[in-house]
Amino acid sequence: MPLDFTAIDFETANSSPASACSVGLVRVRDGHVVATAGWLIQPPAGHDEFQEWNVRIHGIRAEDVRGAATWREQFDRLCSFAGTDVLVAHNAGFDLSVLRRASQATALDCPPYRSLCSLQVARKTYELDSYRLPKAAAAAGFAEFAHHDALADARACAQIVIDAARRAGACDVHELAQILGIRISEPAVAAPERAVA
Predict the structure, then answer these.
(1) HEC string for the chain
(2) How many other β-carbons are positioned within 10 Å of the β-carbon of residue 79?
């Protein structure tokens, strides 16, 4: 199997994982970036307050997303781009949580995505004093990017996995995970509801 995956990064309006206000997506096929996309999102109602801390990090304000598609309106576009790929993100638990929680907040069924964490990949691949995205991306040969711009961050994640696979001699993300001793996260399967007597 070739080195195929989609890197993803979200920025959020506040501390709620459902408050997605921007997404970046990078499609990788056979170890090469073949498509990129990124856009602003109106966070779901009830999760749409822009907190000063978050604005300071990514620079996105409420007025910036006023004309943007809502989570519900852009969801099919996001899912179409990702397809059935393994999703790669730096601290993947956060980004997958944003996907699930924003979908729950808008009564949408989130596809059962599998994920690989580029932070874990970086920790197993490089000897660094910090594994924050800018440092890990620089080690992978992707320096000087606009950190906290969702598309730039997704591109940095993609580069880390591409570089790590090359160094490890891995043909695909599954082999890379196996060589590094980490796992590709499978979606949680909800337990069936039991009838209450």
Answers:
(1) CCCCEEEEEEEECCCCCCCEEEEEEEEEECCEEEEEEEEEEECCCCCCCCCHHHHHHHCCCHHHHCCCEEHHHHHHHHHHHHCCCCEEECCHHHHHHHHHHHHHHCCCCCCCCCEEEHHHHHHHHCCCCCCCHHHHHHHCCCCCCCCCCHHHHHHHHHHHHHHHHHHHCCCCHHHHHHHHCCCCECCCCCCCCCCCC
(2) 16
> Are 99 and 92 contacting, i.e. CB atoms less than 8 angstroms apart?
no
Q: Is the CB of residue 62 less than 8 Å from the CB of residue 51?
A: no
- Say what angle helices 150-168 and 118-125 make with each other, to 10 degrees: 40
- The CATH architecture assigned to 5-180 reads 2-Layer Sandwich (3.30)
d(CA 52, CA 13): 9
The pair of structure tokens assigned to 155 is 């591109």
Domain segments of the chain as ranges? 5-180
Using the Cα atoms of residue 49, residue 152, residue 145 and residue 118 in order, give the sign of their dihedral. Answer: positive
Please state whether the predicted TM-score (pTM) of the whole model is above 0.85.
yes
What pLDDT does 186 receive? 87
Rg, C-alpha atoms of the chain: 17
pLDDT tens string 125-151:
999 999 999 999 999 999 989 999 999
